[in-house]
Design goal:
The complex is a heterodimer of chains A (248) and B (229).
Chain A: E1 5-14, E2 18-28, E3 33-37, H1 44-51, E4 59-64, E5 67-68, E6 82-85, H2 97-107, H3 113-126, H4 142-155, E7 160-164, H5 172-187, E8 192-195, H6 199-205, E9 208-213, E10 216-221, H7 223-228, H8 233-246
Parallel strand pairs in A: 3-8, 3-9, 6-7, 7-8
Antiparallel strand pairs in A: 1-2, 1-4, 4-5, 9-10
Chain B: H1 2-13, H2 15-49, H3 52-67, H4 70-83, H5 90-115, H6 119-127, H7 132-159, H8 174-185, H9 188-216
The chains are: A alpha/beta (248), B mainly alpha (229).
């Protein structure tokens, strides 16, 4: 079985910060959800961005269902297959919720307008926003915005979705509605790679937790292992802090 | 009373000439404004998204044309091409001089518009697979136009009256027509007031049009600090 996503030895450095990713490798099989945790500044977002080449890695390789994403050339043809959900939503402000979801379908996948709208409405329904299709981003709450963001990624029928701290910019009482959607997607078999501090989410749906620190994978394993019996002292400390902050 | 009637008579007699001048003014104004607007689009894109060389070159272009008086630009574009053996009519010399100048300003309004859009939106567009040109066209430009609208309306109101300067290189626009009439009939105040009224109408209609565009393309829920709370 070919992994949906295969990441091999990704390295990335910035002039100002030095090497943020120091050789990261991971695999994601179809239907799996893996959660990346780790202290801030440790390259979690950079790793996700290297996967769809919003940021070009310095070295290392990424494969999507056996095809190499990182080989030279235009990454545009891979990106529709890799959904990306941003911490700050990044919705298109001048477009309604529905148009936010359909603009990729019509302009990238070449779908006819009515077909795109049908698909867009289906995606909005999955995230529970059917009644907000005609609302504009500025009229939505943070939680609703992020659910539109998820619908936008989903509508493209991606092979996997990358979530970059999808709930970090939300008020505590809005986090639940977004996590619910993500749990729902994970249970339906959407392949996802999630950067988050929501340990409860990781605990309930992750097949694997990957603990990133100092630009390397320090520890990884099933949630019960990493969360209950972390091997590394650094993991213990981090989880302790996170639990204090966010609860279980 | 008799004086007033005779003044009105002068206006009526010279109405066709004034209207002809008005038509030239509108034609010149719209042409240079549209030319400048279109150029500004490419200049702003080049400044923001071009490589260092292109960005510097276009910034310099915008800077030069914002630094020179319109009247000098008119003379340069009128006398310059002739020296190079290019035959440019006074009308088109004015279109280029005023058009490039307004492009220099308008490019800065567009640049401001682009830079007030958070970079995340462009990233989101790229992440669904849009090419850079497509993302600019679908996501950045529509918002840039909106952000730049109030400044564009202002630019129109300012520069549309610069068409009167074209009279210095012999474009027979409304002010030039007025001067002809004054020379014949000697009635300066009535003619200048009439010409002023014509500029006022042209400006007013234009700014109303931009106000309509602002309203038409307002993004629902998108409130800025100008709103009363």
């Amino acid at each position: 079985m070919t992994a949906v996503l295969k990441v091999e030895n990704i390295r990335k450095s910035y002039p100002s910060e030095g090497e943020v990713l120091r050789g990261i490798s991971l695999n994601l099989n179809k239907g799996e959800t893996k959660v990346i945790v780790g202290p801030s500044g440790t390259g979690k977002s950079t790793l996700l961005r290297c996967i769809n080449r919003l940021t070009e890695p310095d070295s290392g390789k990424v494969w999507l269902s056996g095809e190499e994403v990182t080989r030279a050339g235009n990454p545009d043809r891979f990106r529709p297959k890799i959904g990306f959900v941003f911490q700050h939503f990044n919705l298109f402000h001048h477009l309604s919720a529905l148009k936010n979801v359909t603009v990729g379908l019509t302009s990238v996948q070449g779908l006819k307008k009515d077909k795109a709208e049908r698909k867009g409405r289906e995606s909005l329904e999955v995230v529970g926003l059917s009644d907000q299709a005609d609302s504009y981003p500025a009229e939505l709450s943070g939680g609703q915005k992020q659910r539109v963001g998820i619908a936008r990624a989903m509508a493209m029928d991606p092979e996997l979705i990358l979530f970059d701290e999808p709930t970090s910019a939300l008020d505590p009482e809005l986090i639940g509605e977004v996590l619910e959607v993500m749990i729902d997607l994970a249970k339906k078999g959407m392949t996802s790679l999630v950067v988050t501090h929501e340990i409860g989410f990781a605990n309930s749906v992750a097949n694997e937790i990957i603990f990133l620190d100092g630009g390397v994978v320090l520890e990884k394993g099933p949630p019960e292992e990493v969360l209950r019996n972390p091997k590394e002292e650094r993991t213990k400390q981090f989880l302790h802090k996170i639990t204090e902050l966010y609860g279980e | 009373m008799e004086a007033l009637v005779s003044k009105l008579q002068v206006l009526v007699n010279n109405g066709p000439a004034l209207l002809k001048g008005t038509a030239v003014t509108i034609e010149l104004g719209l042409t240079f404004f549209v030319v400048g607007y279109a150029m500004a689009l490419f200049i702003a894109m080049g400044i923001v998204y071009g490589n260092k060389a292109i960005s510097t070159l276009l910034s310099g272009f915008s800077w030069v044309f914002r630094s020179l008086p319109a009247i000098i630009l008119l003379f340069i574009f009128f006398y310059g091409p002739t020296r190079l053996g290019i035959n440019l009519s006074a009308f088109w010399a004015s279109v280029f001089a005023l058009g490039l100048r307004t492009a220099g300003y308008q490019a800065q309004y567009f640049r401001g518009g682009i830079q007030s859009i958070r970079s995340g939106q462009l990233e989101a567009a790229r992440s669904v697979g849009m090419s850079l040109p497509k993302a600019l066209y679908k996501i950045i430009l529509p918002q840039m136009f909106r952000f730049a609208l109030p400044a564009t309306a202002n630019e129109y109101a300012i520069t549309i009256k610069d068409t009167s300067l074209a009279y210095a290189i012999g474009v027979v626009e409304v002010l030039q027509q007025g001067s002809f009439i004054i020379a014949r009939e000697y009635n300066p105040l009535a003619i200048y007031v009439t010409v002023a009224l014509i500029y006022w109408i042209i400006t007013r209609v234009g700014t109303r049009f931009f106000a309509y565009l602002e309203k038409r393309y307002r993004i629902p829920g998108f409130k800025v600090s100008g709103f009363k709370v």
